[in-house]
Amino acid sequence: MLSLTSVQISAFIGTFWWPFCRIMGAFIVMPFLSSSYIPPMVRVLLAVLISALLSPMLPPVPAVDAISIGALFLAIEQLLIGFMLALFTYILIHVMTLFGAMMSMQMGLAMAIMNDPANGSSNPILSQWFLLYGTLLFLALDGHLVAIGIIVDSFRLWPIGTGIFDLPLMGLVGRFAWLFASAFMLAIPAILAMLMVNLTFGVLSRAAPSLNVFALGFPMSMLMGLLCVFFSFSGLPSRYSDLCLEALSAMYQFIGGSHE
Asked: What is the crossing angle of helices 6-29 and 69-107, to 10°?
């Protein structure tokens, strides 16, 4: 007759439960998987499947009673580690949202707001457009597979029970500054083009005060902005692929991986 002790049951549960917590924490914020269009049951089942495949290959897991306060703290710790790892990809995707918002403000389309039922927010239409484009580029570059691979490697590079405060948390905070810098880098050609248009109409208004510059300038600014959007798509994939590589490299280095 098969008999199991409470220690063996706790060890068996812990071997599967801790990886599940970390992976599920990542799936809460990871692009595409965190969308409300993906049913929660699909995310849970995917996390269960990855955890079941991963548990035999994990390094020794600390022996913690599965129904103790220590187990609760360890589960919360794994959720936070997964959340912070996936936050790198979340910031990467929202570079495109901020990029679209910058262009919308310059061309006068910031007032064109569209509700996003997936994220529960309201953003300019261009932001939604670029967000969708960036998500498709991220999936086409297999960024989601690389991100899941980094999460799997995190169990080797940052084993369960190592702690959370030894992680380079300031590096994660610095990614928010990287978000604004990257979006501005993508938008600066369009911003400069729109600045030249506004300067031109400013000079025209001084040269011919009787001319209704507002009635002429607003449509021309919008047409020039749409032209800038059209030309932005020519070099956007290569630049965004570099941003993807940079974000995934930072995600890998966050858990102690080498730069190579």
From this structure: 10
Asked if residues 106 and 120 have their Cβ atoms less than 8 Å apart, the reply is no
Q: Which amino acid is at 93?
A: I
Query: How many residues can be counted in the chain?
Result: 260
Structure tokens at 141: 């570059």
Helix (H) or strand (E) holding 123: strand 121-124
Whole-structure pTM value: 0.82
Q: Is it the case that residue 1 has pLDDT exceeding 50?
A: no
Q: Is 204 exposed, middle or buried (0-12, 13-18, 19+ CB in 10 A)?
A: middle
Kindly give the interhelix angle for 213-254 and 143-157, rounded to the nearest 10 degrees. 30
Q: Buried b vs exposed e over 15-41: b needs ≥16 C-beta within 10 Å?
A: bbbbbbbbbbbbbbbbbbbbeeeeeee
pLDDT digits (tens, 9 = 90+) for 202-227: 777 777 776 666 666 677 777 887 88
Residue 88's pLDDT is what?
92
Q: Which of 10, 135, 3 is nearest to 61 (CA)?
A: 10
* pLDDT reported for residue 173: 86
Residue 212 dihedral angles phi and psi, to the nearest 5°: -80, 90
Region 88-108: what's the mean pLDDT?
Answer: 86
Dist CA 114 CA 119 (whole Å): 12
**How many Cβ atoms are within 10 Å of 83's Cβ, its own excluded?**
18
